């Protein structure tokens, strides 16, 4: 029998969440580096370089890998012989650990959890409650997997109730392109097969707790049907040419994980959940001897990578940029932004569109300005702002035509692709959409020299800021003519991969 003290679980959860906020799993770092070394697409290679540089910076500075510090998911296996020295429930102890982690003044994590999700959507301020999956098992230990899952990748989760005769590989191959790049590839795919709908989803999520080992599996060969499926799906998805950040390339997924469970004879539930470039999870076991001891990785485990933009890069002064200048920018071109930009996410866009419809004056003048889709982490010490990477841009698509037409907005900056309606609006009004790398939030924040809230302070991280930036790197993702690199890039690399396969045969 083990006696687990209340503080041991609380402290272990809090420490683990801080730990994973700035330390990537080393297997993930190695996986991205291997993909970086193999990559032939320069755009994808540059994106992975930024991800790796950001990862090392976060490990050194102990600041979040991504501005979206996630919704906490915890898998707990409690031994039947365990006794608790606590008056709290296990759920309450875990949530207290989450609360302490996200309010830690040395490394404040962004509170993203909203209560009353179909109503007021009010921020809980401390990122609680966590999503907890608990199981009672034989033994006298408590085994815990802690993860922090970003909204951009979580929103791309898929569930299908296939017919038993349907091909799982074909469903995955057909479905992954519909996910776009908002899940920040390269990452992992977690797949749950069987059980019921909810069982498949939980298995897909739990499978993402395992380390990357697909290349070891390739070397030794599959030993069962699940391992055969992993390899087949891995090759099928990477043959799509989606690539890092959806820019086109050889690596879209670093690994495919599968868990399965017996199911009804008439059913084939299949769930798929991606993990993004901010993969964050930790595992610990409590046996009554104290809190978990999480050993930091060595900085020597990170590759020595530099990223240079080159002398020919276009530097832009946002304070006086004109529509005529924007028309000269080419798809895929790297641009360094300087000067002042505004920020705004879903809540701010919804509020502004409502104000426009009501004939109200907006609190900020958007004419000729650029708006960055970001909800930053609060600063610590001498930071102007905490990690400030982009959020998924397609969520703003429904507001884009109104914003461009009614405000004179010139440019937008975000993550991943834009949908057809947004692209048409960009083309109609001669605007531009720029892409920052998702998974490089701390690196991006170093370009931000000043940050002031200028509207909607009551929205917290969704408030409108004005950033003053120096050489913030972005890519022209949709030019003023409506050409999107998230369409042209993957199409080009899918064709290249197919041609290479034909030559190999």
Automatic annotation (TrEMBL):
<keyword id="KW-0408">Iron</keyword>
<dbReference type="InterPro" id="IPR036660">
    <property type="entry name" value="Fe-S_hydroAse_TtdB_cat_sf"/>
</dbReference>
<keyword id="KW-0004">4Fe-4S</keyword>
<dbReference type="GO" id="GO:0006091">
    <property type="term" value="P:generation of precursor metabolites and energy"/>
</dbReference>
<keyword id="KW-0456">Lyase</keyword>
<keyword id="KW-0411">Iron-sulfur</keyword>
<dbReference type="Pfam" id="PF05683">
    <property type="entry name" value="Fumerase_C"/>
</dbReference>
<comment type="similarity">
    <text>Belongs to the class-I fumarase family.</text>
</comment>
<dbReference type="Pfam" id="PF05681">
    <property type="entry name" value="Fumerase"/>
</dbReference>
<keyword id="KW-0479">Metal-binding</keyword>
<feature type="domain" description="Fe-S hydro-lyase tartrate dehydratase alpha-type catalytic">
    <location>
        <begin position="11"/>
        <end position="284"/>
    </location>
</feature>
<comment type="subunit">
    <text>Homodimer.</text>
</comment>
<protein>
    <recommendedName>
        <fullName>Fumarate hydratase class I</fullName>
        <ecNumber>4.2.1.2</ecNumber>
    </recommendedName>
</protein>
<feature type="domain" description="Fe-S hydro-lyase tartrate dehydratase beta-type catalytic">
    <location>
        <begin position="288"/>
        <end position="487"/>
    </location>
</feature>
<dbReference type="InterPro" id="IPR011167">
    <property type="entry name" value="Fe_dep_fumarate_hydratase"/>
</dbReference>
<dbReference type="GO" id="GO:0051539">
    <property type="term" value="F:4 iron, 4 sulfur cluster binding"/>
</dbReference>
<dbReference type="GO" id="GO:0046872">
    <property type="term" value="F:metal ion binding"/>
</dbReference>
<dbReference type="InterPro" id="IPR004647">
    <property type="entry name" value="Fe-S_hydro-lyase_TtdB-typ_cat"/>
</dbReference>
<dbReference type="GO" id="GO:0004333">
    <property type="term" value="F:fumarate hydratase activity"/>
</dbReference>
<dbReference type="InterPro" id="IPR004646">
    <property type="entry name" value="Fe-S_hydro-lyase_TtdA-typ_cat"/>
</dbReference>
<comment type="function">
    <text>Catalyzes the reversible hydration of fumarate to (S)-malate.</text>
</comment>
């Amino acid at each position: 029998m083990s006696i687990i003290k209340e503080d041991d679980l609380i402290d272990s959860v809090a420490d683990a969440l801080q730990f994973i906020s700035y330390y990537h799993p080393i297997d993930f770092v190695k996986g991205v580096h291997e993909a970086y070394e193999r990559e032939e697409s320069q755009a994808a290679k540059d994106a992975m370089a930024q991800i790796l540089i950001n990862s090392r910076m976060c490990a050194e500075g102990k600041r979040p890998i991504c501005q979206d510090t996630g919704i906490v998911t915890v898998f707990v296996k409690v031994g039947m012989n365990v006794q608790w020295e606590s008056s709290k429930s296990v759920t309450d102890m875990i949530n207290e650990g989450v609360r302490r982690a996200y309010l830690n003044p040395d490394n404040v994590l962004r509170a993203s959890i909203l209560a009353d999700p179909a109503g007021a959507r009010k921020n809980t301020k401390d990122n609680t409650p966590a999503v907890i999956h608990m199981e009672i098992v034989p033994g006298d230990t408590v085994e815990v997997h802690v993860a922090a899952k970003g909204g951009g990748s979580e929103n791309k989760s898929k569930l299908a109730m296939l017919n038993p005769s349907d091909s799982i590989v074909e469903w995955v191959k057909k479905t992954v392109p519909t996910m776009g790049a908002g899940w920040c590839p390269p990452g992992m795919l977690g797949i749950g097969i069987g059980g019921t709908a909810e069982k498949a989803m939980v298995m897909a999520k739990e499978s993402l707790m395992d380390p990357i080992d697909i290349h070891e599996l390739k070397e030794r060969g599959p030993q069962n049907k699940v391992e055969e499926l992993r390899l087949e799906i891995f090759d099928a998805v990477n043959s799509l040419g989606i690539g890092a950040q959806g820019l086109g390339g050889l690596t879209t997924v670093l690994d495919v994980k599968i868990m399965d469970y017996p199911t009804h004879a008439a059913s084939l539930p299949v769930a798929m959940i991606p993990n993004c470039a901010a993969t964050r999870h930790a595992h610990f076991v409590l046996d009554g001897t104290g809190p978990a001891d999480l050993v930091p990785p060595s900085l020597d485990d990170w590759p020595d990578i530099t990223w240079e933009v080159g002398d020919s890069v276009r530097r832009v002064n946002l304070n006086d940029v004109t529509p005529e200048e924007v028309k000269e920018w080419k798809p895929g071109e790297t641009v360094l932004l300087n000067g002042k930009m505004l920020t705004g996410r879903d809540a701010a866009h919804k509020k502004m569109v409502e104000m426009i419809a009501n004939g109200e004056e907006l609190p900020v003048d958007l004419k000729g300005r650029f708006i960055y889709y970001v909800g930053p982490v609060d600063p610590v010490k001498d930071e102007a702002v905490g990690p400030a990477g982009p959020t998924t841009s397609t969520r703003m698509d429904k507001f884009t035509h109104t914003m461009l037409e009614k405000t004179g907005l010139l440019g937008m900056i975000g993550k991943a692709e834009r949908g057809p309606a947004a692209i048409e609006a960009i083309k109609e009004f001669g605007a531009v959409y720029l892409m920052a790398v998702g998974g490089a939030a701390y690196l991006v924040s170093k370009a931000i020299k000043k940050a002031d809230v200028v509207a909607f302070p009551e929205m917290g991280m969704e408030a409108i800021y004005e950033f003053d930036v120096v050489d913030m790197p972005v890519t022209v993702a949709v030019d003023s003519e409506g050409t999107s690199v998230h369409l042209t890039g993957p199409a080009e690399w899918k064709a290249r991969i197919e041609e290479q396969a034909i030559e190999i045969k």
